[in-house]
Amino acid sequence: MQTRQRSIVGLLLALVMAAIVWWTQGDGASPGTGAEPGSPTQTQSPTHDYTETNTPVTDPTQHSGTDPVSGLPLVQLAALPPEAAETVDLIDADGPFPEDEDGGTFENREELLPDEPRGYYAEYTVPTPGADDRGARRIVAGDDGELYWTGDHYRSFERIVR
To answer: Residues with catalytic annotation?
Structure first.
């Protein structure tokens, strides 16, 4: 009987350890903090959905690699998927856009972009090859011409440098 009890205790310990590992590897929110994934209290790290060989290149004129206004990382447009450059061309030409939602107001509910009045930002779909829907990739444009990239549906942003 003692061997069976040790086996059960060992199994319970293994399950507890697995739960702890799962919890710490999850969404980055600590237990009891109330932090939500993508909340401004969390450190934002860009998630790229393009190949490892096509990594972002920061603007060489910026010594820190971050946008001084937003504090977001900089990314060269040429380092993004080719569909992003096509979307920027459509934004510059004021359309026509492939999705009805393109050009709609981006409300910045995540509060990751600089605080601006409602209607300042517009969002545009960056097509994802092979996707059956709009996918997660977007470019958000500000009224002053600034462009932001998100490859993870607004969980993180980078300021686009042309």
So the answer is: 123, 153
Tokens of 122: 């517009």
**Cβ–Cβ < 8 Å for 25, 34:** no
| Phi-psi domain of 150 (left: phi exceeds 0; alpha: psi -120 through 50; beta: other) | beta
Q: What's 146's domain CATH number?
A: 3.10.450.30
Strand order in the sheet with 121-125: 74-76, 158-161, 147-150, 138-142, 121-125, 104-106
Average pLDDT estimate for 156-160: 98
pLDDT of 53-77, one tens digit each? Answer: 333 333 344 435 999 999 999 999 9
Handedness of CA 21, 22, 24, 25 (dihedral sign): positive
Any bridge partners for residue 104, and if so which?
A: 123
d(CA 17, CA 73): 36
- The residue segments making up the domain with residue 75 are 52-161
Are 58 and 22 contained in the same domain?
A: no
